Every structure is written in C-alpha cells, then in structure tokens.
Amino acid sequence: MKFAIIKELKNPPDRRVVFSPGKLKEFQDQFPSSEIKVEKSNIRIFADEKYKELGFEVSEDISDCEVLFGVKEVPIGALIPNKKYFFFSHTIKKQPYNRELLKAILEKNIELFDHETIIKENGARLIGFGRYAGIVGAYNGFRAIGITKETFNLPKAETLENQLELISELKKINVSNTKILLTGSGKVAYGAKEMLDAMKIKKVSVNDYITKTLSESVYCFLDVLDYNKRKDGKVIDNYDFYNNPEEYESDFMRFANVTDFFIAGHFYGNGAPYLFTREDAKSEDFNIKYVADISCDVDGPVASTLRASTIANPFYGYNPQTEAEVDFKDKNAIVVMAVDNLPCELPQDASEGFGEMFLENVIPAFFNNDKYGVLERAKMTENGKLTARFSYLQDYVDGKE
C-alpha cells in the first residue's frame, strides 16, 4: 500500500503535518512493506530536506499513492478522485461552509476519513490536537492579562519553538493573587493544566476556591458536576448529566463571583445548560475579567464569546451591559481570547504529538485487517455514497439543511 503526506493548501497556511520526519521513519520501520511519499511543500514546519535525509521520496506528484494524509480541508480543485483521504473536513456537524466539499468528495468517489471520526468503540477520540490547543490557550490567556494591565508583555506563541519555550516565558511573569478557573476533563483541559502546574500555581479544592480569601494565585479544576446541578437536587454521576442534560441547570455563578481568569477547556454537548448567560454577566457579583475560551462555541455556553478571534488578532472585549464587542482595553470589558485554531501556533510540538497518536492508533489498522474497526468506524464515504454511520448527513449534502 502506498501512502503520502500531502501539502497543506488551505489559506491561511497551516504549517502542521500528520507525521514529522522522525515519526514517519518509525512508521516505515514498523511496517517495512509500506511505500511512503511526501508531497513537496514550502510551508510545512519540517523542511522537505528533513524527509529526504531519512530516505523518503519528496515529489510534486503523489497521484500514484492510495492513502493521502493531511491536516486541514483539501480545496475541491486539488482533490484526486478514487483515493482515501484523511483530514479535518469540518462537515460532521453540517457546517454550511463545507457542504460543497463533501459533495465533491462523493462525486469524486473518494473515501473520506475525518480525523474527528477516528474513535474507540465507546466514542472517545483516538487522535487530535486538543492538548496543544489547551497549552497555547492558557498561554494566550496570560498574555491577554499582561497586555491589558500593561504589566508584562509575553511574545506571541507562534514566535516560540515549542511548549518548553512557552513555559520559560510564563515563569518570568508575575500574576499575583489571581483566581483561575479551569473547566474540562479531556485533552484540552489537561493541556492547559500542564501550563498552570509548570508555573507552580497552586491547585485548590472547590470549597477553598469559593470560600477562602487567598494570598497567592490559585486555580480550581472543575468537572461538569461541579458547575451543573440537577434541578431536583439529586446528585448522581457524570453519565446521568451526559444522558439527561435537560434535567440540569448551571451552578457556575458560585465560581464566576470569585474568579478573575476563566479558562474554558470543556466540551459542550447539545442540550446542556449554558455556563453563564448574558444576563449572568450583567450581575454586579460577576467577577470574571479574562476569558480564554479554548472550546470556542460562538454565541453559546460562554456568553462573552461573540465570535472566534484570530492568531493575528487574538483578543477582543465584551461589554456585558451592552452585550456588544468593544476594545479589549475598555475598562468595562471582559477580555476574550477565542482563537479557534490554537494548535497552529505550536506546529512542531502539535505535529510530533499527532503523529505519535496516529502511528499508535490508526496505521496498524491498515496492516491487521482493521482488527479493532478503527477505519470502519471512521469512514464517512464509500463508492460515492455516505456510509451508514454518516447517513444523517444526506439532507446536508442535498442542501435540505
């Protein structure tokens, strides 16, 4: 079987890659019967020469390969018919802006495997860039604090080489007596937690966070049942919340009233209560001044997230009284960081980590007859049609939704 690493063609350019040169060599060594090519690229974080040095053919023509690995959406005009493609298609939630892409994939008889659909039997994702979103998101949140208060000036994450350099910069700053709230239980939240721990910020219990006045910066790490409660007062478990979100209401305000900096690293499921609403943010007791919304659900559970921001302009202000966007340095603003492609700022680390997960969880399926059903579960299209698992997208493809 012939595999290829494709050049990223989406604009703005994304420097990440599914396999770094070293990980691609591990792939080749583990499965020596495979043939692997690398499409020539002048934007990839790893230079073409690095792949050549390890014996890989770098070419402008990868049309003889069967399986093509990319990161972001492939432009319709660049899609090669009758291939197997792996990339983030941003279609599984019926995103309107990519309907034509999915239509073209079907018309060109392409087998699409979206990175988001590569899951275990229980639905847990096997690969992703979430950890790196958390790492950069937390860093950017501190950067927003320094710039707004004019107390310190962290360099942009994209100008630094890796996580270690980000941590080195964070260790130089002083954020005294700041209460930091972190939500989530997945890779995003734990990526952010890595940064807080590296800064030696003390982790405290829910009770201490809410009730005690502390003389140092602290953080509190919340799971869903910390900031949601059943309407009937019962305390059951996380699965009850996941299965019956409509039975719950937000209990977030008890944290919002004592928090300075909120890092949103949670996954928000449809039907769950909003963490805080626009009305909540108007309360005199609402204390949050900085929000690093890594989850970035626009106009959703974090009321201050009016839109996604960009790597070039990562911050904006939200005035809770007018519910409108303002300059982030406005004295009445909640400062919002809501970049929706954070791992792009740490392309080397993100690519290394992604390749490690991909080699462990996906590549073996090509050589063991898909023993654990990884490819079968992930396949979205086949023979010009949606697979049964993704048949819910038919109305979307037909333009009826």
Automatic annotation (TrEMBL):
GO terms for molecular function: saccharopine dehydrogenase (NAD+, L-lysine-forming) activity. This is Saccharopine dehydrogenase [NAD(+), L-lysine-forming]. It is an enzyme of class 1 (oxidoreductase). Its EC number is 1.5.1.7. Residues 159-338 form the Alanine dehydrogenase/pyridine nucleotide transhydrogenase NAD(H)-binding domain. Monomer. It catalyses: L-saccharopine + NAD(+) + H2O = L-lysine + 2-oxoglutarate + NADH + H(+). CDD domains: SDH_like. One of its GO terms (biological process) is lysine biosynthetic process via aminoadipic acid. Pfam families: AlaDh_PNT_N. It comes from Polaribacter filamentus. Transmembrane segments: none annotated.
